[in-house]
Amino acid sequence: LHDALPIYLSLQYGLVPESSYGYSAYATVVGPIYGDYQLAYQFASLALKITEKFNNLALKATITMTACNNLMLWREHIKHFENLNAEGYKAGLESGNFQHSGYLLMFRLFNSFDRGKFLEDIMTNLPGYLSFCRETKNEVTVDIILSLQLSLSNLLAITPDKLSFDNEELSEEQFLLACQENRSSIALCKYHTLKSQIGRAHV
Question: Is there a contact between 27 and 33 (Cβ–Cβ < 8 Å)?
């Protein structure tokens, strides 16, 4: 009921830019929790349209990150969100919402990896994205991107051996310690998931 309240208020009194939060939040309930991903897709799409209606660039970056990378992808292939994510990233830059621009860069890397794009191309783009997140103090995103960098280093055979995930810039031990210090549980989860998948591939 709490998540539905912003929608009720928007229906009763009219839309405001922040209504997009309400529709996006409700989508996270009806989709991942109740399993109605079609309805979640519709609410997420509506949230994006609300940001367009009010031309709120900061909200556009925030809602794009959630809608395209956490909700709508359950009903549509992630390749269809490449342009939307790029628009969301640009909106974040123009509005000063650098936090969500950083999130969108991170998702761009992982989406490219999940789509099976050339690993060399992903690795080429990664340092620039990492630099942006460091400059904007987005530590959690930095750690998540580093989890991919170590994994790519192994897959591209630029680690000492196939069981190693160390590269010239960062060792696995240093990465794990930094994640613990930063309380980056998502980065740790991402890393251990990637590492287990890579380990199976090497068997």
Answer: no
Other CB atoms within a 10 A radius of the CB of residue 12 amount to 7
pTM of the model: 0.92
In this prediction, residue 1 carries a pLDDT of 57
Task: Give alpha helix (H) positions in the chain.
Answer: 5-13, 19-28, 37-54, 57-66, 82-95, 98-114, 119-135, 139-155, 172-182, 185-202
d(CA 36, CA 4): 15
User: Running DSSP on this structure, what letter comes out for residue 165?
Assistant: -
What pLDDT, in 10s, does the model give residues 87-109?
999 999 999 999 999 999 999 99
Mean pLDDT on 33-61: 96
- Helices 172-182, 139-155: inter-axial angle, 10-degree rounding: 160
Three-state DSSP at 141 gives helix
Residues 169 and 143: their CA atoms lie apart, in Å, by: 14
Helix (H, G, I), strand (E, B) or coil at 130: helix
